[in-house]
Amino acid sequence: MCGIVGVVSHSPVNQLLYDALLLLQHRGQDAAGIATNHSSMFSMFKANGLVRDVFRTRNMRSLQGNTGIGHCRYPTAGSSSEEEAQPFYVNAPFGITLAHNGNLTNQAQLKEELFRNDRRHINTDSDSEVLLNVLAHEIHEAADGFTLSPDAVFTAVAAVHRRVKGAYAVVAQIAGHGMLAFRDPFGIRPLCIGVNETEQGKEYLVASESVALEGLGFRFVRDIAPGEAVFISDDGALHERQCAENPSLNPCAFEFVYLARPDSVIDGASVYATRLRMGEYLADKIRKEIPVDEIDVVMPIPDSSRPAAIQLALKLGVEYREGFIKNRYIGRTFIMPGQGMRRKSVRQKLNAISSEFKDKNVLLVDDSIVRGTTSREIVQMAREAGARKVFFASAAPPVLYPNVYGIDMPTRDELIAHGRTVEEVCKEITADRVVYQDVDALKRAISDVNPALKNFEASCFDGVYVTGDVTPEYLDKLESARHNPTKATVEDPVRTQLNLNPPVAAE
């Protein structure tokens, strides 16, 4: 999960890009970067940290130009190295910068193809650099000498779709030609476009979520379709084309559960409205499993579960109260590395109001239960605050399988629900009862808001990987690399041939 943005304007875009990244900060807190284009010259600055900490006045002054792209990073592939912050740049053909949200599932194959066939060197472990070089190669193949027409750009994107597997929403700049945005043929990661009418003409903004458009005064136009590419040339002309052979819309269900801001609209569905519907369906399930008269109060785990908790309480006819106060200056625990850091940050992030818990049977509502570390700490905090019983409800189904499309759920043994019954999960997080949303109910909650949405990428819940190339063997290799990164590096044939691998320490 990352946030991406691209702007084509009639005035300097550095401030616009900075403000857009602030609006997308929830999508990635590890690193941030901006690349602008002025007279076919790129200026770029990127570093680890929050947007507000990465950029200083001197950095902003160096980012000249009326077009540019930005990225806020949350690492799911590669590492947290500053070298892997985005955007990435390659100097040929023409000069291209690229920012990417998602995760490629055939990165290793592409990396070897780039080395052996395309004669391109990949300098990091980032799949985004791989994607950039695949795009650069295909643009080189499609270009007519020094000329690059919109048709050639779309031909290159079509070739990218044929080669690349996985989830990818992309914004890129091609020096001297324009800005390109495209989305994978399954539409897993979100991408939308907006317009601003000015006296000088139209300005365009492409972003991961509609909230970035609306917050900057751009009018939302539409979502970019799966497999579609949009190219805005340097003269301001907008070109659009479907570049995939058999595109289908399969938005990530976890975007609606947790990742996206509630005030965003993704593929025609209000995130806030879908979370209200999740609360209604969850209330129906709770009514079947817990006597409602045993529940004194419903409380959300701030913030993303609040809409579901409000609607759940309303439908059950149970009092809704705020029992936890959130410190907004602590990072999101879901995207923090290391279980120890997550445990520590939960206590720093949330504080219980004891008077709201004392001698009550409390139903806590969270958006999901992933690793269980946060849930366990929250249940203990509720008990320490005086709760008699603590029931725990998840607006999402059990997270049973790894997500390989851009969310940090790579290993089964890190998922508390994998291989455990609901009763065993309940025991692990020390709750009195645990109630999960049903998978079908989650999908209906989204479809109720936009009936045109019929298919979803919900692999972490149902184990169905829509790209069709994720096998048990692939997952095993992914988990092996996660647990033993040195071994995974040694087995990279490209790095081995180039003698870039460090020596392996004896066991």
How would you concisely characterize the structure shown here?
The chain is of the alpha+beta class.
Topology, number of strands: 21
Our Rg estimate from Cα atoms comes to: 23 Å
Overall pLDDT confidence:
91
Helical content (DSSP H or I, runs of 4+): 25-40%
Task: Describe what you observe in this structure.
By secondary structure, the chain is an alpha+beta fold. Helix content is 34%, strand content 23%. The chain has 19 helices and 21 strands. The two termini are 35 Å apart.
Question: What are the defining features of this structure?
Answer:
single chain, 507 residues, seven-stranded antiparallel β-sheet, globular, disordered C terminus, 34% helix, alpha+beta, 23% strand, 19 helices, six-stranded antiparallel β-sheet
List the helices and strands and how they pair.
Blueprint: E1 3-8, H1 14-23, E2 31-38, E3 41-48, H2 51-54, H3 57-62, E4 67-73, E5 88-90, E6 96-104, H4 107-116, H5 127-142, H6 150-163, E7 166-174, E8 178-183, E9 192-198, E10 201-207, H7 210-214, E11 219-223, E12 228-233, E13 238-242, H8 253-259, E14 265-266, E15 269-270, H9 271-289, E16 297-300, H10 306-316, E17 324-326, H11 339-349, E18 350-352, H12 354-357, E19 361-366, H13 373-384, E20 389-394, H14 422-428, E21 433-436, H15 439-449, H16 459-462, H17 472-483, H18 485-490, H19 493-497
Parallel strand pairs: 16-19, 19-20, 20-21
Antiparallel strand pairs: 1-4, 1-10, 2-3, 2-4, 5-6, 6-7, 7-8, 8-12, 9-10, 9-11, 12-13, 14-15, 17-18
Helix pairs in contact: 4-5, 5-6, 9-10, 9-15, 11-13
